[in-house]
Amino acid sequence: MMRNHGRLVLVPCPYQGHISPMLQLGTCLQSLGFSVTVVQTNYNSPKHLNHPNLTFLSIPDGLSDDEISSGYHTSLVLAINVNCLAPLEECLVRMMKNQQPHEELVGVIYDELMYFAEVVANRLELPSIIFRTNNAATFRSRDFLLQLMIGGHLPFSDSASQELVPGHYPLKFKDLPISNFGISENILQALTNMRNIRTSSAVIWNTTDSLEESPLAQIKQECPVPIFSVGPIHKFDTAASSSSLLEEDTSCITWLDKQARKSVIYISLGSLASMNVSDFSEMAWGLANSRQLFLWVVRPGSVIGSEWVESLTNDYKEAVQSRGCIVQWAPQKQVLRHEAVGLFWTHCGWNSTLESICEGVPMICSPFFGDQKVTARYVSEVWRVGTHMENKWERGEIEKIIRMLMADDEGEETRQRAIDLKNKVEACAREGGSSYNSVKKLVDFIMSLKL
Ligand code: UDP
């Protein structure tokens, strides 16, 4: 029986793209000998039953229904950082009072956006570690953005938007993660707090040297504490349980089982992005006219002004017939792993991108906001495993890109590079690989923090 290294408290940020990697990290550390407690907000709390090896505790987040429905995510995150400080402290004090000698609290790992957890850890004299769920290139580009903001150089002109960002090749100014969430003072505050190491002892990063050698090396040079790049963290999640906040429709796997190898394009734009009806219609007709099979996730509410897919006409349904399967939410990792899937049309959220890379599936990149634009540029121009759809969505162009990546000789090099990249990233998660070694070093490091 493995010795218990003590208990870790994990504080995820309550959004899908942050919860999943944090729970994957938790499961990984649990399998390596730690007890793990996840302290979550009431807002967007994950389903406990899927994670029997983790303990979950809820703290009140004080968010009103109006705040939640406002769509100002930066403001929500800032409010959580204020409202949850005292409840987290009370929660940890209670835990420490009742802890068993072999399950002593050894540290707090918090999402970079949940920096109130560091204040609490510090007050209770517990070590804390930051978990960054995004890529290193985004972190560096946020730094650049911060300099522009502080220097009063925002917004930049239309002509500048096409220019390369100095020192950040191949990013262009238009790729910088200027979020449309909330107002700019809020963004400035969130960005500043997110990058500050404070008294934390280390940074865990869901990325890998094999994808981001150069941005990681630059960050490591400047960072005063050790960095553990353990990505793709889902590769170390031995339980591989779902962390979906929405119900996964598994009927799409049965549908995929009936399709030929690499014959299906999978489309999903993640948990937050939304589009107007006109783009939705171009997307629908582009898919139909490509004459390829498709599995399409349309999240309820993601088409502005519609509940779901009611804007699709009978003509459309007749045109696609059984060539398409539309669901509200899919078991995405399982879908990407399925041999019938040959292409992923994605918004380039970092988790989706890593999941696609790990399965060797080439991508069409349609970033919406924030980090997605940085990642899309890396997918298309650094790793070259996808095509960036930069123009306004138009059915003719969509049809052409799908055919090129799915069927034409022109797409063969991209398809091959996607397989090569998968092999490279898989190697870092295998015994002796850089992320594998990083996970082992992280465990030793946490043990060394014990007083
Ligand atoms: N996801 C899923 N089913 C879907 C769509 C997305 O399970 O139908 C998961 C996906 O596997 C990924 C996460 O939701 O792990 C989305 O995170 P990402 O960082 O890609 O984008 P975000 O939602 O943060 O924009």
Automatic annotation (TrEMBL):
Cellular component aspect of the GO annotation: cytoplasm
Highest taxon of the lineage: Eukaryota
Species of the source: Manihot esculenta
Pfam families according to UniProt: UDPGT
Entries under InterPro entries matching the protein: UDP_glucos_trans (IPR002213)
Keyword annotations from UniProtKB, A to Z: Glycosyltransferase, Transferase
Any one GO molecular function term: quercetin 3-O-glucosyltransferase activity
Family: Belongs to the UDP-glycosyltransferase family.
Protein's recorded name: Glycosyltransferase
PANTHER family: FLAVONOL 3-O-GLUCOSYLTRANSFERASE UGT76E12-RELATED, GLUCOSYL/GLUCURONOSYL TRANSFERASES
